[in-house]
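Q: I'm writing a short methods note and want an example of a predicted protein-small molecule complex. Could you take the sequence and the SMILES for S-adenosylmethionine and return the bound structure as tokens? Please keep the output block clean; save any remarks for afterwards.
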Amino acid sequence: MSLGDVTPFHRFARVYDLVMPGERGNQTAVALSSADRDVERVLDVGGGTGRISRNLPVDEPVVVDAARGMLEQARSHGLDCVQGDAGTLPVPDDSVDAVVVVDALHHMADATAVFEEAHRVLRPGGVLVVREFDPTTVRGRALVAVEHLVGFESRFWAPETLAEQLRDAGLDAAVLESGFGYTVTGTKRERE
Ligand SMILES: C[S@@+](CC[C@H](N)C(=O)[O-])C[C@H]1O[C@@H](n2cnc3c(N)ncnc32)[C@H](O)[C@@H]1O
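A: Understood, no commentary inside the block.
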């Protein structure tokens, strides 16, 4: 079964940090404050080399990624890592305060499974933070074309469409930031 775009990331893991800019601003960290609980335990799903985890305001984020090469890089930065699929997360129910998925959802084969898994592993009041790119913007259209040109199977969603999918997974969703790069959060209700 395909997990999504994993093999290219495994192969090019050693150069990933050289070609990727750092996160402009600290949008992911800011979005964590949407949680209705203290955020200590964070899973960085599709976290790759730990580019985002390295700057999160928590002590021990855990990077989950399907590409072994990316995790080797993340480990070299001292991060805790687990190899696994975002659609079947290797952690128990109600065990983390936040799940972040940055620049990764569009590479994953089954976005619905990712949201359902986030809902399963989050503690009540915990938050899912998704940072993605809007394919309806000019830069978004260019990004879609380039990703497909280089052979990625990427699929992109406009912010409100993604928020609706989080709601379908049982999360209270909000669009925090719009534009080419956008942020959607989904909070797990205290009682369901
Ligand atoms: C563009 S990288 C983003 C890495 C990191 N979040 C960042 O912002 O630097 C996308 C990552 O998603 C991972 N990925 C793709 N499909 C996956 C899946 N089904 N489960 C876990 N990781 C996956 C890839 O291996 C890759 O490391």
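A: Remarks, as requested: The longest helix spans residues 138-149. The chain has one domain: 7-188.
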